[in-house]
Amino acid sequence: MRVLGIETTCDETAAAVVELKASGGGVILSNEIYSQTTEHAPFGGVVPELAARAHVEHLDGLIRCALAGAGLRVSDLNGVAAAAGPGLIGGVMIGLTSGKAIALAAGKPFVAVNHLEAHALTARLTDNVAFPYLLLLVSGGHTQLIAVKGVGDYVRLGTTIDDAVGEAFDKVGKLLGLPYPGGPQVERKALAGDPQRFALPRPMLGRPNADFSLSGLKTAVRLTAERAAPLTQTDVADICAGFQAAIVDVIVDRTRVALKAFRESAGAPQALVVAGGVAANDAIRRGLQRLAQSAGLKLVTPAPALCTDNGAMIAWTGVERLRLGLVDDLDFAPRPRWPLDPNAERALNGKA
Ligand code: KG4
Ligand code: ZN
Q1: Can you tell me which atom of ligand 1 is nearest the CA of 140?
Q2: Is the predicted pLDDT of residue 349 greater than 60, yes or no?
Q3: Of 29, 127, 141, 226, which sits with the fewest C-beta atoms within 10 Å of its C-beta?
Q4: What CA–CA distance (Å, rounded) separates 241 from 233?
Q5: What residues does ligand 1 touch, defined as CB less than 6 Å away?
Q6: Residue 155 pairs with which residues in a beta bridge?
Q7: What phi and psi, each to the nearest 5 degrees, are found at residue 12?
Q8: What's the confidence (pLDDT) of residue 159?
């Protein structure tokens, strides 16, 4: 089975072809991506209108390259999958409409993919992880702990009540004058810093539910930076190190609580999986590795290029759904909001 996947929900334009292996995992036949980061950098964040225009300009070419790279024609595909949300509506419409048009023209089944489900299932593409498993999804827009019980079967165990982890990294980077996106910059600066010099809070530590709250930590960083101003390179490094250490402690604690809730409700997890752009952070990976080890669990972290937004995860989700006979109609509407767990309450800030 071979599926074309299309991703346009945020600032990455991507198309890929993935094939299902007889053993159950997947093979990425092609994985094309155009990252718009440099276009948005001057604005310090993603500008939806700019993103939509860039998707229009680049998507057709990327799809052509993805098919050529896989050595396939549209007629060789078993289906077409496109992310239908959640995300920036202009971008979602572009990818979704393209996917539907290709499926219609070629007479192939169409799969409307939930972008979050695609992040959630990537570990099965890369590591053939069996259900159920605990997923920590940490990106610029999402911070969620999810029990992944099966395709389409998710229970949200925790989420953020204010900022996403990547968003907190980006805001700290911005207030310290580092280039956008702040996450990788803060990690780099933290390498040379003293994490103990500034005492920063660990919000929600020890709470019995697995939710996150990061705005208080961000405010503490801002006040610390204002008090220490004008900042030397050493000050910046120490603040970054202190902030990152606080984030690691919070993530490890929240994940430990989610693991407990998982065991009580969904049985023994097969693995702890981390996905999303923030999963590229080495200090966070090491913290989670310690937790996984003490819990007797395997930690699975897909390669950074598959943790951040990409087309292969959409194509793979298309494979997972198609093989269960899950096909969507061509009138499937784009969804700016689309929580994985429909029973989970909305987070306070409205982020799913
Ligand atoms: O998943 P992603 O590429 O896009 C979405 O947000 O959907 O994640 C991007 C986020 C940004 O907030 C970025 O600063 C953060 O991931 N990030 C990192 C690192 N690399 C990327 N945060 C901390 N440490 C990193 N090394
Ligand atoms: Zn994403």
Answers
A1: 6
A2: no
A3: 226
A4: 12
A5: 10, 139-141, 166, 169-170, 181-184, 187, 276-278, 280-281, 308-309
A6: 147
A7: -115, 125
A8: 96
Is beta strand 272-275 parallel, antiparallel or unpaired with respect to 133-138? parallel
> Which two three-digit tokens encode residue 6?
């299309």
Check: CB of residue 87 under 8 Å from CB of residue 28: no
* Dihedrals phi, psi of 220, to nearest 5 degrees: -60, -40
Residue 179 burial (CB count, 10 A): 11
Token readout for 137 is 């999804």
**pTM passes above 0.85:** yes
**CB neighbour burial string for 52-61, b if at least 16 within 10 angstroms, e if fewer:** bbbbeebbee
In tens, the pLDDT along 53-101 reads: 999 999 999 999 999 999 999 999 999 999 999 999 999 999 999 999 9
List the domains of the chain with CATH numbers: 2-125+306-322 (3.30.420.40), 131-300 (3.30.420.40)
| Residue minimizing CA distance to atom 23 of ligand 1 | 183
Pocket test for ligand 1, best of 12, 88, 139, 284 (most atoms within 8 A of CB): 139
Strand residue runs (E) in the chain: 2-7, 12-20, 26-35, 79-85, 110-114, 133-138, 143-150, 153-159, 272-275, 299-300
Q: From the CA of 307, how far away is ligand 2's center (Å)?
A: 8
The dihedral built from the CA positions of residue 320, 322, 323 and 325, taken in this order, carries a sign that is positive
Residue type at position 265: S
Displacement of CA 89 from its chain's centroid (Å): 18
Residue nearest to atom 13 of ligand 1 (CA): 183
Question: H-type helices in 176-232, by residue range?
Answer: 182-190, 215-228
